[in-house]
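Cont'd.
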Amino acid sequence: MTGTNAQNVTTYYISEKVSQVRWLPELQQQSDRFVTGSWDIAKNYVRLWRLQQNPYVNQNVPIVPCCHDKVSMEDDVTGMEFVDKNTLAVGCGDGHLSVLKVQRAVEKDQIQRKARSELLHYFKSANTSRSASCTGVATFGTDIATVGDDGRLNVVNADNLQQVKRTIEADSVSLFAVVYANHQEIFTANGMGVVRMFDARASNEAQPNIAFVVGCQDEKNFNGVSCMTTHPMQKHILLCGSEEGSISVYDLRNLRYPASYLGAHNSRITDIAFHPKDPTKLFTAAESGEVWLWSEQKSLINASEEQEDYCAWLCGERVSDLVKVKGVLSNVCKPINSIDVHGMRLVCGSDAEIVFLADNV
Amino acid sequence: MDIETVPTFELGDILATRCGNTLTGKFLTNSKIALIAYTHKNTNAFANCEQPSKDGVEDPVLIYIAQETTIYEEPLLRSLLSEANTTFNTLRKLGKNASKTEYINVSQAYRSIVRSCLEKLEQMKTTPKLQVDEAELRCSSEAITTFYAVECLWHLFEILYVQEQHNQMILAQLLKWTRFHFPQTEAHATDLLLMAEDASDRDDYWEILKTLIMLGEVSVTAAILTQNRKAGRDEFQEAISILKAMPVFEDGYALQKFRSQWEYWHVNGEHKLDANAFAAEPELELLMQLVVGKNEQWDEALCKSKEWYEYLPGYLLYTNPTCKPFDLRIAATAWLNRWSRLRPEWQMKTMSRMIKHLMAHDIKLFLFEMQQLNESNWFATHLIDLIYQSGQLNSYCEQRKIDLKSLRNSTVYNFGSFLMTSHKLWQLGIDYLDCCGEEGIAAINILLPRIPFKTERLALKLIAMARQRNLFEVEPEICKVLFKRSYDEERHGSALEWVIRSKDATVVTAMADFILKNYSKTGIFVCPDVITNIGARMFIAPRLVFLCKYFEFNELYRKRDFSSATKLLVNLLDSKITPSYFWPTLFIESIPLLESKEPMLTSKETVTILHHLETNLLPLIEQNMLETAIFPNLSSTVELKDYRIENVDEMVSVLRYACARNYSRTILKENTA
């Protein structure tokens, strides 16, 4: 019944507000398993789903997701990333990080918690001491970076959660997003629109002081950065989705000014992701219940510009000519919180307690 | 739940028992009530008493929180709420001018939501976990009963009032409805068909066939009869041919022609019975008597049925097959009278009564009873909304003076505020409150900031929702809560961010004051990274502008960009926004610049400093002295302190000397050049 633009979008009610969705990594084939994390309900779970033949005879919907297993979490699931094929890092609203292991099977897949970190995010002062929400998770190799409402950036190894490799007092306000640019450089973003760079190898005191503020339309309001991603092939290209719905693109080799700035949605961009195999495609999800697909128009690119490090996203004001926007999902009425794309399929999790699957994207 | 029964509870702790088990309560947020033992004491009696009563002293005072329980605590029922919410939104978008088919689709969508939920509940009932957990089993059984009734009523409503029947022929639909809601007979029939010939030996063979006939399953009965061992006999052949010959109304028939055909079939059947064609097989004869609608036999069979409406459509099939809604009204009343005459001890339950209202076209009573059901008005809200949007019952409502619009708005409002205040369902609730007039918007305005938020992400979501609806009061309120929370926990960066987001000049000023005073005392800025990035947002309050500019001066000074720093400092002195407590700090900053080897300040600027020293700082010092002279115990209203000085007077004299020196060397230089 939900309004969708494309014919190829199917909806599944799962009776949980979905904060995170991720496909299980598959190298050779189309992934048919995904995980969801829930938030803001009495009991929150990480669930493992598998797409299966519809048990009911229904020609319109040949495959449906079936929940194979679940892990009960202590609080909202706020971040989820795969470390490797079967290892999932889960950031939780109680300030802890957990590592979950997936066991694939022919009949019934399983997911289990393997480890839970010490309290990584917390508020501490003379008169209070309480946990702070972890707000984002990023992975690189076996390293996991977490950020939280307390402004801390932690780096831990997936194999040993008990030992925190690095704790950086990154910010004095809440952090909302974290992303790895390479194995050592980590970018964090906060609610004031400030993006900072940190070095995972340097100590808390010796951090480089590199920061920039994303652009905004309304100078009177803060334009917080709500999500970030890097280009899957050209890691020096950083895209930031913001509270006002715009996208700022930065070339990390030149941080003095943004490479491009695009007005996009008219509400907070909740998630932003390149297609991992086809970086000409970018997906954005917004609080107002939209998912857009941005595709680079190859035909419009001049042969002279076809250099090795050419990318349409760096073309400043010309980006809007070089990239075509298409709505994948609209009229959902409730925020889309997370998207993930693998092969031909896109999965979206929403506050409408629905998981959307879009085929042939 | 009946309206007559009012739920009661008592505390029963020691304190409450002692004072006569009376209590008092207070409403908290989220429809909670805090309860404590209470006994009324007359104030006069209290005054006369020399000692206070001992009641409250010896026993602990326990505070109880009472909260409304709803069936939605069962997680499976959550899907009912969220899916219905989507359908509700779809209907809202369709509005009042959609086509009939679209309204029927919506109605069916609602019903399928209930059905799939019932299916899930039934499945869950059989899981081993529930077999042990009695409370949960009871809870889910209750949910099943309630929503089963909802589906049954909605289905009937859809047949009678939403669907457009061709020629208003409703009987076929009604038969389907009874069959769906009394499914046991159909299951038995399948058994019989599978057993083929052997079925004839079953003890309940004729009982099942009778029920099938009474539910109007004519062709199935015929099929079972043909499998009977004695099927070859004349009696059976005759019965089967009568059953098979029964005319069934189909679309496109001329009504008159059908009636005459049916009359012919009916009379033929009666003739056969009168001629004792089935006398050799009494059971079969009874069956055929039912088919021709013999009242005696029907009465007998009715005594065994469970609900009054179970066999009504079947009876109509054999007596009035072209029954229209108007006929149904009369038939239903007559049928009910007959039923109660047959079973005088029978008591009507809510659901049976509501079905009667629907059949008798008593929508008003139906709507009334619907709102008494114990499911927090899920049913009433969605059905009344559908009635309102589709406009199906407009003329009826006008006749009966029902203000459908207000009725719809008030149920939607109640349901919306129920969701907004319970079980983290606020995102669903807000959609309902959005579309029930001004009251709804006002309720959102009040309830939205009261949704408990732990994380900033949730707070930002709430703010976005408020902005979408142009509710400008919500955002500052939420921001100030976060400000207070951060401030109390000494997270000053966060506090500053949220106070700026709140755009409340008074609080912003207070926060800026805190940071500036803290700097004067310690020489440390609490959250330099935030102050750096305030940017254009500083213009909310002059104090914040001052803070940002002073911070900028500090940064310039730290970077040894003295010429820019000096300009900024003089600007600040001249700005008229310097808070009085900050004058000493500002003047101290100028001393090293005045005393530097290379002169930084021009003679004019030096005069400016001196001017402000005389006109701003000195009156303050004098006032302070006056106040301390009058009230020596009180500290002065304006604290003139800086971590670098012990005595303000000393600083004043140092500054005067510095100014004089700088003035003398610059004036010379400026005039000689």
